[in-house]
Amino acid sequence: MSFDYDLFVIGAGPGGIAAARLAAAYGVRVAIAERDQVGGTCVIHGCIPEKLMVYAASFSHFFEDADEYGWGKVQRRINWQQFMTAKDRAIEHLSQLHIKHLKEAGVELIYGQTKFLDAHTLDVAGRKITADKILIAVGGEAVKPNIPGFEYAITSRQMFELKQQPEHIAIIGSDQIAVKFAGSMNGLISKVTLIVAENRVLLNRDEDIRTAVQEIMEKNGIQVLCNTTVEKIEQIQDGFRLNLSGGKQDTVTVNTVLCATGRTPNLSGLDLEKVGVEVKQGAIAVDEYSRTTQTNIFAVGDCTSRPHWTPMAIATGRAFADTVFGNQPRTVNFECIPSALSSQPEAATVGLTEAEAREKFGESVRCYRSRFQPLFNSIAEPEEKTLIKLVVDGNTNEVLGAHMVGEYATEIIQCLGLAVRKGVTKKDFDATIGIHPSAAEEFFTLR
Ligand SMILES: Cc1cc2nc3c(=O)[nH]c(=O)nc-3n(C[C@H](O)[C@H](O)[C@H](O)COP(=O)(O)OP(=O)(O)OC[C@H]3O[C@@H](n4cnc5c(N)ncnc54)[C@H](O)[C@@H]3O)c2cc1C
Ligand SMILES: NC(=O)c1ccc[n+]([C@@H]2O[C@H](COP(=O)([O-])OP(=O)(O)OC[C@H]3O[C@@H](n4cnc5c(N)ncnc54)[C@H](O)[C@@H]3O)[C@@H](O)[C@H]2O)c1
Q: I need a labelling partner for 359 at 20 to 30 A (CA). Which of 6, 49, 76, 415 fits?
C-alpha cells in the first residue's frame, strides 16, 4: 500500500520537531502538523517566555544590589508592554528558526487541527492525509480544579499574554510553575501571594532545598500561605476575592489569579479510540521504544506519562527516529535527570533527595551540606545564603544526589549531572581542585 508520507508527526513542539528532523535526515518522507505556532509549549507558552520573564525580573534585584555596590539608586519599575513586545519578538524569531530548520531538513509543515480517521489516515483541518507511521507529539495543557469561580483564574499560557501587569497576584500551586512565577512577579514588583496546599513549597524535592527556597521567597517579600486551599473565587470590583480554608487567613483580595495546579495531555479531539491507542490515566501508554498499542503509531513528550521536560521530549523523539528509521533501536534512560528552578531564588537538583536515598540505602547514607555567603553578597545581600548539598552512599562512597539553592545553580548542577550519572564518588569530589573564587568550588571542599 502506498502512503502520502512515511512519517506523519502531530504537533510541532520539541518532541515532534526533533523526531521529524532526524527521520527526514534518514531519507524518509516526513510531514508535521501544527494547529498553533511552531515551537510548542516550550517555545511559545512555556520554558522560553518563562525564562525571559525570569531575566526581566532579575534586573530589579541587580538594581538593588547596584546601589549597595556604589552605583546609586536605579529606578525599579518595568514597562510591562515594552517587555511583552520584546518577549513576543524573541519568541517569533525562535519559531521562525524552527520553521527554517524543518524546511532545510525537507519536512513538510502543514497547519491545522489534526485527528485520526483510521490507523493510517488523518484529517488535518479537513484535508485527508495518509502515512505509514504516525508520531503523536501533542503535548499538554494546564488544568484547573473544579472549584466555584475557577473560571476567573488564568493559567501559565495566559500569563504570557497579560496586557497589564497585575498589582497583586494570587498564585495557586506549589510546584515549579507556581514557584517560578511567584519569584518572577515579585522581581517585577507585583505583590505576590502564593497559596500552597502542602506545608511547604516544592513537595518531593530535598527537604533542605524546600526550606531554603521558601525562606528566600519570604525574605524577598512573597506572602506564602501554607496548608491553605482555595474554596471559592468571587469577582468583586477591580478584582477577585479568594475564600480560603485550612491556613491562617480566610480571604485574600487580588487583581489576578494564576492557577498552576498541574497539566494534562492534549488528547481531546484526536479520536484515539478509533485507532486502538490505549490511554492510561489520561496519558498515551507507550513501551520503551515509544510505541503505542497500535503498532504503527508512536507517542513522545508531554502526551505520555514520562517526565514533562523539553529535553525528555527531544531525547525520546530522537530515539524514536533512530529506532524506526535509522536502524539503531535504542531507548532513553530516565534516571538521574537534572532539573532546575531558574527563578528567584534559583535552585537545581540531580539524583536522589536525602529522603529517597535513605529509603533505598538506609543508615549508610551520608549528607554533606554547606550554607555560605557567596562573595557577591558580602556587599549586596549579606543575609542571602547559598545552599549546597551532596547525598552520598556511605558504603560505596558514590554520590547519589547533588542539590543547590543560589545563583548559577542551574549551570552548576547541569555539569554535575554528568558526574553523578557516571557514578562519581565523594573521593573524586575531594580530589578535584576548585576554581576560586566561585560558588561551585564549595562542592569540592565539603567535609
Ligand atoms: C510554563 C511552563 C514552563 C516550562 N518550563 C520548562 C523548563 O524550564 N524546562 C523544561 O525542560 N520544560 C519546561 N516546561 C515543559 C516543556 O514545555 C514541555 O515538557 C515540552 O514543551 C514538551 O514538548 P512536547 O513536544 O511533548 O509538547 P508541546 O511543546 O506541548 O508541543 C505540542 C504541540 O502540539 C500541538 N498540537 C496539540 N494537539 C494538536 C492537534 N490535534 N493537531 C495539531 N497540533 C496539535 C500544540 O499546538 C503544540 O504546539 C514548561 C512548561 C510550562 C507550561
Ligand atoms: N515551570 C517549569 O520550570 C517546568 C519545567 C519543566 C517541566 N514543567 C512541567 O510542567 C508541569 C506542570 O507543572 P505545575 O507546577 O503546574 O504542576 P504540578 O503538577 O507539578 O503541581 C501541581 C501543584 O498544584 C497543587 N494543587 C493541585 N490542586 C490544587 C488545589 N485545588 N489547590 C491548591 N493547590 C493545588 C499541587 O499541590 C501541586 O503542588 C509538570 O509536569 C512539570 O514537570 C514545568
A: 415
Percent with pLDDT over 70 in the chain: 100
* Under 8 Å between Cβ of 271 and 297: no
Fold of domain 5-142+264-325? FAD/NAD(P)-binding domain (3.50.50)
| CATH T-level assignment (fold) for domain 346-444 | Enolase-like; domain 1 (3.30.390)
List the grid coordinates of 89. Answer: 519578538
Q: How far is the CA of 408 from the centre of ligand 1 (A)?
A: 25
Q: Mind listing the pLDDT tens digit for each residue in 40-50?
A: 999 999 999 99
Q: Whose CA is nearest to atom 17 of ligand 1?
A: 42
Pocket test for ligand 2, best of 42, 146, 154, 176 (most atoms within 8 A of CB): 176
The residues annotated as belonging to the active site are: 436
> Residue range 223-244: average pLDDT?
96
Q: Residue 306: CB within 6 Å of ligand 2?
A: no
DSSP conformation letters of 322-342: HHHHSS-------SS--EEEE
Q: Three-state SS across 167-229?
A: CEEEEECCCHHHHHHHHHHHHCCCEEEEECCCCCCCCCCCHHHHHHHHHHHHHCCCEEECCCE
Phi, psi of 178, deg, nearest 5: -60, -45
So where are the chain's domains? Answer: 5-142+264-325, 150-261, 346-444
Q: Is the CB of 261 under 6 A from ligand 2?
A: yes
177 lines ligand 2 (CB under 6 A): yes
Whether the ω angle into residue 345 lies within 30 degrees of 0, i.e. cis, is yes
The 10s digit of each residue's pLDDT in 173-199 is 999 999 999 999 999 999 999 999 999
Asked if residue 308 has its Cβ within 6 Å of ligand 1, the reply is yes
For cell 562542592, name the residue.
Answer: 443
**Whole-angstrom distance, CA of residue 151 vs CA of residue 257:** 10
Q: Whose CA is nearest to atom 34 of ligand 1?
A: 11
